[in-house]
Amino acid sequence: MLTIPAPTLRSRATSLLRTLQNQSSTCPCHACTHPTPSPAASLSAARKLAVAAPMEKEYAFEMAASNIRYGNGVTREVGMDFKNLGVKKVAVFTDNNILNLAPMKNAIAALESEGIQYEIYSKVRVEPKDPAVKDAIAWAKRVAPEAYLAVGGGSVMDTCKIASLYEAYPDAEFLEFVNAPIGKGRPVDKKLKPLIAVPTTAGTGSETTGTAIFDLVSHKAKTGIAHRALKPLLGIVDPLNTRSMPSQVKSSSGLDVLCHSLESWTAIPYSERVPRPTNPILRPAYQGANPISDIFSFEALKLTVKYLPRSVHNPDDAEAQEKMLLAATLAGVGFGNAGVHLCHGLSYPISGMNKGYKHAGYEVDHPIIPHGVSVAVTAPQVFRFTGPTNPDRHLAAAEVFGVDISNAKAESAGEILGDAVAEFLVKLGDQPRGISHLGFTREDIPALVEGTLPQARVLMLAPNFQKEDNQKREDLARILERSLTY
């Protein structure tokens, strides 16, 4: 939000005083009458406006992440974890693709070995829409488990988080906790049941975060819920569970890691975020770049640039797959506290307004733009746009891609990083080179802009974007125009 400079406040105050002194007693907007205020009252109102304090900036940041257990084969310990918690009945969430694969079989064997009762919900939709999420919520309310286990990618973990949340608040309306301004953004004020997350893709980092994303059909855009209370109690990060990922799933999920790390690294500093919360419970999960998140985000970027191409191009490269799963988890801690910005904000309507594009390598019966694809497709232009706000950070990121920045000029930082990201995407291969390759045209840009603007949770962290709405529209339209192809 903008801080209005003092001259503007004074001029507004003077205008208000004149209006109050000269106005009639009729209120034209409601056709009602009110007594004309006295000059003293008018002057008092004007003075209050003239000395209005600017909105206070944040002064603190808060770190939160799930406990993480990393290692080959740790899935077999999940039964013991629930037993140690005193849990006897677990709701297991997965999807039909994972249901009969090794990660799910090993998780169920672990439950059975400890005598843990369980029921399985395997109807999770990849890139879920709100009807599918509501179905999962209804199922969770019927089952009423003591704890939750999610075995799958980000869609599975996010659906499980939301089901757990609304099972704990059975009378809440669906938009009650959804991020404002689309939903009410109600804070979660009670402890949820334990959730253990077992990721099977190296992408979302959802095993570490309190974020859950879905498509809201009525808005033709993604939205979600973000609160620390949603984060899993434990993330079981088992590299063996990513061995079955098809090449295209590896690349698209890995691109999510790439953008998580780049966006959280370049987000506005936490100390620049407004407004300052009046109570710690109101401090958002996404807070802006901070010294602790920086460590996780930058390390995740380095791992992704080095190991994602190897993971995609060589399915037998076990080291690359292990490092990408680690990168996803590190990025989850980074962006789960610092936040993401424009790549993600733009991705939500890109996915939600899909005209029929179906990405290769995904075994689904519906059109799909994988989340990682939708965030990466505008990334070259996004970082060209944000570059001027913090050239040093953009150049440091470009250096990770192998760019020699020894003689780079600060004013060229955005172009340098944007070019590096574009080159990386091209070399990775099999990626849509711009939104036109997803089926969008110039005529779709206004709708994509309007679908992006409500994503306040992430846009508030975007560098070079704290402007009035018309300027925001122009900036978004320009980014999308230049992202038609690269």
Plain-language structure description:
This protein is of the alpha/beta class and 486 residues long. The protein has helices at residues 6-22, 39-50, 78-84, 102-113, 130-143, 154-168, 247-266, 291-313, 318-338, 342-352, 371-376, 379-386, 391-400, 413-428, 445-452, 456-459, 469-482, and strands at residues 26-27, 32-33, 67-70, 89-93, 117-121, 147-152, 195-199, 211-216, 221-226, 234-237. A 6-stranded parallel sheet has the order 3-10-7-6-4-5, with helices on both faces. Strands 1-2 form a two-stranded antiparallel ribbon. Strand 8 (211-216) and strand 9 (221-226) form a beta hairpin. Helix 7 packs parallel to helix 9. The longest helix has 23 residues, at 291-313.
Task: Summarize the structure in short.
With 486 residues, this protein is α/β, with parallel strands linked by helices.
Could you list some keywords that capture this structure?
486 residues, alpha/beta, single chain, 10 strands, globular, two-stranded antiparallel sheet
Please count the beta strands (DSSP E, at least 2 residues each).
Answer: 10
The main β sheet shows up as: 6 strands, parallel
Helix run count: 17
Compute the separation of the termini in Å.
32 Å
Which regions are unreliable across 5 or more consecutive residues at pLDDT < 50? 1-53
The level of helicity is 40-55%
Spatial order of the strands forming the largest sheet: 3-10-7-6-4-5
Rg computed from alpha carbons, rounded to a whole number of angstroms: 24 Å
- Mean of pLDDT: 90
Strand content: 5-15%
Helix vs. strand class: alpha/beta
Secondary-structure element sequence? HEEHEHEHEHEHEEEEHHHHHHHHHHH
| Gross geometry | globular
